[in-house]
Amino acid sequence: MTRIWNFSAGPAMLPEAALREAQAELLDWHGAGASVMEMSHRGKHFTEVIRKAEADLRELLSIPENYKVLFLQGGATLQFSAVPMNLLAGRSADYVVTGAWSKKAWQEAARIGKVRLAASTEAKDRPADGFTRFPRAEEMDLDPRAAYLHLCTNETIHGVEAHDESLLPEGAALVSDMSSHILSRPVDVSRYGLIYAGAQKNIGPSGLTLVIAREDLMGHAEVIPRLLDYRVQAENDSMLNTPPAFSVYMAGLVFKWLKKEGGLARMAALSREKSARVYAAIDNSAGFYRNPVENECRSRMNVPFNLPTPELEAEFVRASEAAGFMGLKGHKSVGGIRASLYNAMPVEGVAALVDFMREFAARRG
Ligand SMILES: *Cc1c(COP(=O)(O)O)cnc(C)c1O
Asked: Which residue, by CA, sits nearest to atom 11 of ligand 1?
């Protein structure tokens, strides 16, 4: 068996230990005589699985008691609608656009209700790659009466990350799409009203969406499908209907692995080291590799970069696949190359990538 170095942005690499644990108990979970895929979500076995997953997640992120943890479906994309449906309550919300994902969230929310653009860092002359930084709070045109302020604190496609949450604006409840950097560093959950994330980047398999919501923000929705109503989901322990049981179980195995590996402080240190190595390979390539993001906003999770020509980029992707790497092709909307460095990517994988980048630049530069 060979597992290759998988730099895909998502669905992404999972920790090998979690996969092995799932493999070992796939046919018979803890003596139940069935796998987690095959048991009632209301039975005692799955109840134990989902309770343990929530308890471990609460411990990892130090989630305060007045926040609910919801295990939902529909991906981060459905949250683009669910957030305004639940939180607007006839008011208006502010959106900060820093890349493709927050732009999508803003556009989707505009279909639901009244939203304002508090800031956009899009360079209009280069629409495809024109997001290179996270704006400072003073640059945002904030409505003091806004129901919430929506952010994406790590832009997966453009590689822009808000590193210091103490610099985020005070005032309206902060709502953050953390799909691609949740669990990569400690987070002060109390700074946010609501955090959401699709699982397939840094949590587990696709099909699961995590929502962490402050209790007082829930229950104000007007007409809304019950399945999308945070209050109803919280009252039903995320089991109004059948939850994505296997994905919840796999996420639980990842949480267990994270605790064993030293938690989020350890993941933060590792992600700094891994991303620093890739950015150094870019910056020390005499211009062969280029990343346009401002230094202090460069993402630790997703490192997009370009080569001198699209032809060289295509050759880089082909050569990387031949050399045992996977998932380095950039997002179709921006092209180029992207290396995603989530928790499951070991330092050795990054070292191998950096060696490959140096060798490729020496040969084709
Ligand atoms: C991947 C991603 C999404 C979309 O997630 P789905 O689960 O496919 O809906 C939204 N936001 C961010 C930041 C992402 O990385």
From this structure: 101
Which residue in 126, 272, 117 sits closest to 186, CA to CA?
272
- Rounded to two decimals, the pTM is 0.97
Q: Are 157 and 130 in a shared domain?
A: yes
Structure confidence by residue, pLDDT tens digits, 203-252: 999 999 999 999 999 999 988 999 999 999 999 999 999 999 999 999 99
Which alpha helices (DSSP H) does 284-365 contain, by range?
310-322, 347-364
Atom of ligand 1 at shortest distance to CA of 152?
13
Regarding whether 173 and 61 lie in a shared domain, the answer is yes
Ligand 1: which residue has its CA nearest to atom 7? 75
Cα 349 to Cα 326: distance, rounded to the nearest angstrom: 11
Number of domains in the chain: 2
Question: 83 alpha carbon to ligand 1 midpoint, in Å?
Answer: 14
CATH of residue 279's domain is 3.90.1150.10
State the residue range of the domain holding 277: 262-364
**Å from CA of 277 to ligand 1 middle:** 26
Tell me the CA–centroid distance for residue 179 and ligand 1, in Å.
6
